[in-house]
């Protein structure tokens, strides 16, 4: 009876398997490690080239990420081919898996398409201050799947590109100039001409105010005890908040110096339910 366990045969088969597939595995690992190093180097070169060519700062991180993903997919295909896997079968399996993954990750694909749309239409760029999806902040980065905002108090907000591309976006910095509107409520007992002149002098004394369009001072509200004057002036976008804060402070000081009265609120005092309830107006 022939020995079922031929040690020499099995040893030769194992040795042959290790020699063939072991060398392929080692070559595949070396290819993977070298390929990852090359991809990282190419990413740096591509990014530096984009900086040198002055590519839009909004496109740089997005294109860098796309190149990195594409090169890694190509590397994986090369490594699998080195292991001796039939590429025709592998591509068929990859296509089926891609379809299944695509159906499972519809949201992510929507975000990717939204990122492409944002970078194509360019409703905002890196550095713009925007308001969208109930959030506001400065655009810090536009990635493949999301856009990163930095708030004035240094919070980081990640907004998915899909909903962002299909929502209303308010861009506060896309234009070079902005209109500042300030409202000042004063007592009806004041001389409206005097109040207007005080505000006019403050506007003329501030070099940040642009002459065109011309500044306007108009009455926008008139109540029983107060009237409201709105000051509308145009400034460069970088001066918006500085002028807004300064004008409020300077107007307060000027009103006090010129004796401009502020409106005094009135409150209706009603008697208790157990006794007579005469109504009397008392100033607070």
UniProtKB/TrEMBL annotation:
The UniProt record lists the keyword Oxidoreductase: no
Residue ranges constituting the Mechanosensitive ion channel MscS domain according to the UniProt record: 108-173
Localization per record: Cell membrane
Cellular-component GO terms for this entry: plasma membrane
Keywords, ordered alphabetically: Cell membrane, Membrane, Transmembrane, Transmembrane helix
Molecular function via GO: mechanosensitive monoatomic ion channel activity
Name of the molecule in the record: Small conductance mechanosensitive channel
The organism's taxonomic lineage, starting at the top: Bacteria, Pseudomonadati, Bacteroidota, Cytophagia, Cytophagales
């Amino acid at each position: 009876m022939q020995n079922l366990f031929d040690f020499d045969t099995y040893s030769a088969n194992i040795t042959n398997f290790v020699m063939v597939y072991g060398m392929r595995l080692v070559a595949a690992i070396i290819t993977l490690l070298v390929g990852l190093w090359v991809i990282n180097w190419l990413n740096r070169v591509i990014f530096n080239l984009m900086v040198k060519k002055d590519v839009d700062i909004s496109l740089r991180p997005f294109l860098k990420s796309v190149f990195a993903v594409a090169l890694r997919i190509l590397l994986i295909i090369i490594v699998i081919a080195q292991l001796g896997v039939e590429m025709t079968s592998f591509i068929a399996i990859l296509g089926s898996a891609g379809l299944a993954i695509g159906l499972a990750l519809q949201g992510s694909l929507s975000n990717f398409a939204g990122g492409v749309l944002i970078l194509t239409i360019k409703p905002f760029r890196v550095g713009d201050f925007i308001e969208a999806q109930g959030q506001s902040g400065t655009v810090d980065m536009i990635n493949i799947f999301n856009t990163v905002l930095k708030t004035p108090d240094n919070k980081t907000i990640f907004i998915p590109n899909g909903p962002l591309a299909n929502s209303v976006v308010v861009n506060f910095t896309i234009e070079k100039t902005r209109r500042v509107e300030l409202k000042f409520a004063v007592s009806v007992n004041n001389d409206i001409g005097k109040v207007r002149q005080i505000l006019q002098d403050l506007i003329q004394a501030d070099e940040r105010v642009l002459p065109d369009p011309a500044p306007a001072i108009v009455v926008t509200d008139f109540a029983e005890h107060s009237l409201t004057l709105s000051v509308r002036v145009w400034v460069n976008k970088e001066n918006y908040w500085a002028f807004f804060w300064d004008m409020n402070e300077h107007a307060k000081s000027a009103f006090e110096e010129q004796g401009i009265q502020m409106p005094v609120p009135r409150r209706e005092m009603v008697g208790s339910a157990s006794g007579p309830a005469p109504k009397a107006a008392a100033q607070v």
